[in-house]
Amino acid sequence: MRRFIAALALVACLGAPAAQAPPRLVVVSDVHGDLGQFVTVLTQAGVIDGARKWTGGTTVVVQTGDVPDRGPDSRKVMDLLMDLEKQARKAGGVVHALLGNHEVMNMVGDLRYVTPEEYASYRSADAERMREQAYAMMADRARIDDPAYRAAWFAERPLGWVELQQAFGPRGKYGTWLRKHDAVVKVGDTLFVHGGISPKYATVPAADINARVRASLASKSPFADPLMTDGDGPLWYRGLAYAPEAELAAHVDALLAFHGVARIVVGHTTAPGVVLPRFGGKVILNDVGLSSFYGGPASSLQIEGGAVSVRHRGTLIPLPASNDLGAYLAAAAGLDPQESRLRTWIAQGATWPEARAAIQQ
Questions:
Q1: I want to staple 269 with a disulfide (CB 3.0 to 4.6 A). Which of 207, 241, 245, 293 is the partner?
Q2: Cα separations (Å) of 171 from 109, 122, 174?
Q3: Secondary structure letter of residue 16 according to DSSP
Q4: Residues 309-336 as b or e (16 or more Cβ within 10 Å = b)
Q5: Banded model confidence at residue 323, pLDDT cuts 50, 70, 90
Q6: CA distances from residue 95 to 55, 85, 294 in whole angstroms, order as listed
Q7: pLDDT tens profile 47-75
Q8: Is pLDDT at 19 greater than 80 in this prediction?
Q9: Would you say 284 and 263 are in contact if contact means Cβ atoms under 8 Å apart?
């Protein structure tokens, strides 16, 4: 295995030069429609001002996906990201908005997690006529005149449903924008992806993953490539978050060597109210459940001058590059209210992974 890891490191060095690290990196994970928390996080990180204009200079912001669903303001968050992309570029900075599984779900019409408020945000003055037209085209011909069937069909498709699908379609405002985005990005010595990279995809270059996702989203059969729905695929994989470290340690070392990075940062899996390092800091779980749906804290990851820190509720705390997390967790918990998920988790022994009552999406 050591020879294999060394070989992968050599391949990575030969295959692509190391990307120059930006002066500062700020990383925000799953937003899930919570504009207020997103604005708070960006403001605390000093990359926007009170008017939501870019003040980050040459900072690179990475949003690791899952902007939509579960909250009311996904549309406003995407609008803000679109504006900040342009503003950052003019200032010499960059905003990377990665694709998560929920962006892809919306693009392919899987709307299980869209909230009533979200549908309402897309409702146009012509919404009723558009939905009637959709019913005429899509309803089961054998039951189209059945009042009960019609009522159920309409209940599943609130006003705004047609407009939302159009907006996420190939020619829609958000669909056009999202289809240009990556699923995996390397910035400096850090790799970013929404879910994770499993052993199954360990030797697939990031450029190939991105090309396959783009090709799938441009296809009439977006799930023809198993990567798009595979539980081991980069949009869905949770092994870096949940698997015992002893089982995946060799994989993590090989993965980092292959991509020529020091660490991989993922979202997707909600950590216990705090950014959580695993594998001695080689894997960072950055989804703290910051949206109101989960009730987590305003939090972002910061990488600057080789130092990795967490801005927890506005205060910067160094992130340990080891498995000794006691002082770090105590510092973060000290910033929390008396009733918080982090404080409860620590009181229960701070064992990770926690018992999972349900599968996350």
A1: 241
A2: 14, 16, 8
A3: S
A4: bbbbbeeebebbeeeebeebbeebbeeb
A5: confident
A6: 12, 5, 25
A7: 999 999 999 999 999 999 999 999 999 99
A8: no
A9: yes
Q: Contact, 66 vs 102, CB < 8 A?
A: yes
CA angle 69/79/120 to nearest 5° reads 50
Q: Which amino acid is at 60?
A: V
Q: What is the mean pLDDT of residues 269-280?
A: 97
Q: Across-strand partners of 54? A: 48
Nearest to 46 by CA among 65, 31, 24: 24
Biggest CA pair distance of the chain: 68
**What is the Cα–Cα distance from 253 to 6, expressed in whole angstroms?**
10
Alpha carbon distance 315, 45 (integer Å): 9
CA dihedral 343, 344, 345, 349 (to 10 degrees): 100
Rounded Cα distance, 146 and 140, in Å:
10
Distances (CA, A) of 237 to 43, 254, 269: 30, 17, 9
Reported pTM = 0.92
Residue 163 C-alpha from the chain's centroid: 24
For the residues of 261-306, what is the DSSP string, one character each?
-SEEEE-SSPPSSS-EEEGGGTEEE-----STTTT---EEEEEETT
Percent of the chain with pLDDT over 90: 91
Whether the CB-CB separation of 87 and 53 falls below 8 Å is answered with yes
Is pLDDT above 80 for 189? yes
pLDDT at 16: 39
pLDDT digits (tens, 9 = 90+) for 288-316: 999 999 999 999 999 999 999 999 999 99
pLDDT at 355: 59
CA–CA distance, 211 with 213 (Å, rounded to integer): 6
CA angle at 41 for the pair 40 and 45, rounded to the nearest 5°: 115
Rounded to whole angstroms, the Cα distance separating 272 from 259 reads: 28
Q: In the prediction, which pLDDT does 21 show?
A: 77
Residue type, 111: L
